[in-house]
Input
Amino acid sequence: VQLVESGGGLVQPGGSLRLSCAASGINVSLSDMSWVRQAPGKGLEWVSTLYFGGYIYAADSVKGRFTISRDNAKNTLYLQMNALLSDDTAVYFCARGGSRPPFRPRGQGTLVIVSS
Output
């Protein structure tokens, strides 16, 4: 299983980014897939899960701002992030599984910095 995240960068508060997670060795349309993040000096925090049946579950801290989705043809998971806050600064990982640890396997992560 290989998961490769991309799309991170520096964005101003209130801005938007779309993260991508290209998957190989796993079919994202047949798996529960999640985004998790790790802020500087903190542990892993679950962000959102897209269950293989299509149900979406998101943390209260991102509900209404972040949207998880997938492209079955591209075998890719996405995270659309809007109205970004400085507290959203973190390395973002995609992982197979749901809302509970161990969040493995997961990719190498992509860094999102929200700052003016």
In short: Strands lie at 2-6, 9-11, 17-24, 33-38, 44-50, 56-58, 66-71, 76-81, 90-96, 110-114. Residues 53 and 100 are 18 Å apart (CA to CA). The mean pLDDT is 96.
